[in-house]
Design brief:
This protein is of the alpha/beta class and 383 residues long. It folds into two domains: 206 residues, Serine Threonine Protein Phosphatase 5, Tetratricopeptide repeat (Alpha Horseshoe), CATH 1.25.40.10; 135 residues, Glutaredoxin (3-Layer(aba) Sandwich), CATH 3.40.30.10. It is 51% helix and 8% strand. It contains 16 helices and seven strands. Strands 5-4-3-6-7 form a five-stranded mixed sheet, with helices on one face. The chain has a two-stranded antiparallel ribbon with strand order 1-2. The longest helix has 17 residues. The two termini are 21 Å apart.
Length: 383
């Protein structure tokens, strides 16, 4: 059973990008999000109608998310820099469905300690959180003056904070100089056509065209053998399609001691899991968490390893932490969807199921589909 579950973890590397470009569950740039009215920290109703006619940012955040704190501090600066240009900001707290007196007081203290210059609203019942389809803590939504979505950033990854600010600048009418699109690279800057092929591969992957994406990443790696990002993507997509040898070839060429990158170490741990060696994979992920704390890759790997080993309670705790530190991991979420789908098809009972569904909204939608398929008894009913 453990070996079969471990083999399933190969699916961590499949369907890598269908969700990567999706920041809100059902809303896309150009859509008008649902209106809302929520109480502020003084109990006064504040509605999204107050944003009408102005560029705006709506921030979904929680007190327990470290990146929420970073995001709110940065938006204090954005409020000062772009407020005169018309930018309005609403910070929607999503700490919980039923906030008691103590919890509301804690949110007030949290906001007061940071001297936030924009309204802080309480989404009690999480109705706005659900209506907008928020999938990560925090999430930043930029709206144009017509009230339509201009840009969404799930989580608050360091690599995309400049891109978020560029979206704010566009919303308020400040033109930015053209900026060359470059992924994070190790070693030399990608040469020749390497970057162009790499970016094409990312776009193809976002469309779900795995075969063509793999071809583009291979061309990128061939154009500049020193471009490690391309080599890693070749390995990840190859592993997703079942070509373990290509992934292992990268592992032989580049060791974690050569390059201290979380995504590379996470990939190498995934190779171990794909080969069914859960003990070695768990050790690799534990080392990753110690060497690169607060990145989330180690927590993701340990959480998926625990789930593959049948330790659902431990997996849920680790994945909660991973979700905060590294909100975007379409590979990990792909594994979770397939893991649960296989068990619901067999109508198995899954320990801690409600906890996983609460943490990953996609699973809730999937479970509802299975419940409709199997009737009111749900996917865990006996055949």
């Amino acid at each position: 059973m453990v070996r079969r579950s471990a083999v399933l973890l190969l699916l961590v590397f499949s369907a890598m990008a269908p969700r990567s470009a999706v920041a809100l569950m059902d809303l896309r740039p150009g859509d008008a999000p649902p209106p809302f009215t929520l109480p502020d920290l003084g109990g006064n109703p504040v509605g999204s109608a107050t944003l009408a006619g102005s560029p705006a940012a709506v921030l979904f955040w929680s007190t327990w998310s470290p990146r929420s704190s970073e995001m709110l501090e940065d938006f204090k600066r954005h409020a000062e820099a772009y407020g005169a240009k018309g930018l309005k900001i609403l910070a929607v707290n999503i700490d919980g469905e039923n906030l008691g007196t103590a919890q509301r007081a804690a949110v007030r203290e949290y906001a007061a300690a940071r001297a936030l210059p924009f309204p802080v609203l309480l989404d009690e019942g999480l109705a706005t959180f659900a209506a907008w389809g928020v999938m990560a803590h925090p999430t930043e939504v930029v709206l144009d003056a017509a009230g339509r979505i201009a840009y969404v950033l799930p989580g608050y990854p360091l690599s995309l904070r400049e891109e978020l600010e560029a979206a704010l600048r566009r919303a308020v009418g400040i033109e930015a100089p053209p900026r060359r699109e470059e992924p994070a690279s190790v070693g030399s800057v990608p040469q020749g056509m390497a970057l162009q092929h790499y970016n094409l591969g990312r776009r193809l992957l976002a469309k779900g065209d795995t075969d063509k994406a793999l071809e583009a990443f291979r061309r990128s790696a061939a154009a500049d053998p020193a471009f490690l990002d391309a080599a890693i993507m070749v390995a990840r997509v190859s592993l997703a399609t079942g070509d373990l040898s290509a992934a292992e070839q990268l592992a032989r060429q580049v060791t974690p001691e050569m390059v201290n990158r979380g995504d590379l170490r996470y990939l190498l741990g995934g190779i171990m899991l794909a080969k069914g060696d859960t003990a070695a994979a768990a050790e690799a992920f534990r080392e990753l968490r110690e060497l690169l704390p607060r990145e989330g890759w180690g927590e993701w790997g340990l959480g998926l390893t625990a789930l593959a080993s049948g330790e659902s309670a431990a997996a849920l705790g680790l994945l909660r932490e991973a979700r905060v530190l590294q909100p975007e991991n379409p590979e990990g979420e792909a594994f979770l969807r397939r893991y649960f789908r296989e068990r619901w098809l067999r109508r198995e009972t899954i320990p801690d199921e409600d906890g996983f569904v609460g943490l990953f909204p996609d699973l809730g939608e999937m479970r509802e589909r299975f419940r409709r398929l199997f009737g009111a008894a749900g996917p865990a009913a006996a055949p």
